[in-house]
Amino acid sequence: MQSNMKWIVILLFTITCVIPLQAFANDALLKQSYASKTSDVQIRGSGNVIHILPDDNKGSRHQKFIIRLGNGQTLLVAHNIDLAPRVNNLKKGDRVEFYGEYEWNSKGGVMHWTHKDPAARHIDGWLKHKGKTYW
């Protein structure tokens, strides 16, 4: 019985250590992509909403907001609401997870392709907010 408990404690410790390291690794990759002006990087990460911007209604409509990553970098999220549902009840301070394509710009970069590709030519992306996935 004590042996099983020991393995459970080791497993829980390992899980709690690995998850933050993944987030740190993704923040580091985004920071490196920004510093090297690299685009077209498919990445998963998360951040806290610091600004909610008006929708971009020119061409394909996009819900836009800015998040701050754990490393302090800011990132514009441009979520195509013609192809995916709008993130409901998004507020400043909310945590948002993302999986999409990073494009460099001088202000920290843009995360897009946070939706399924109807033509199946691009990797599907998503946003996650309060337990709900938007894609």
TrEMBL record:
Protein name: DUF3465 domain-containing protein
UniProt organism field: Psychromonas marina
Domain of life: Bacteria
InterPro entries: DUF3465
Family annotation (Pfam families): DUF3465
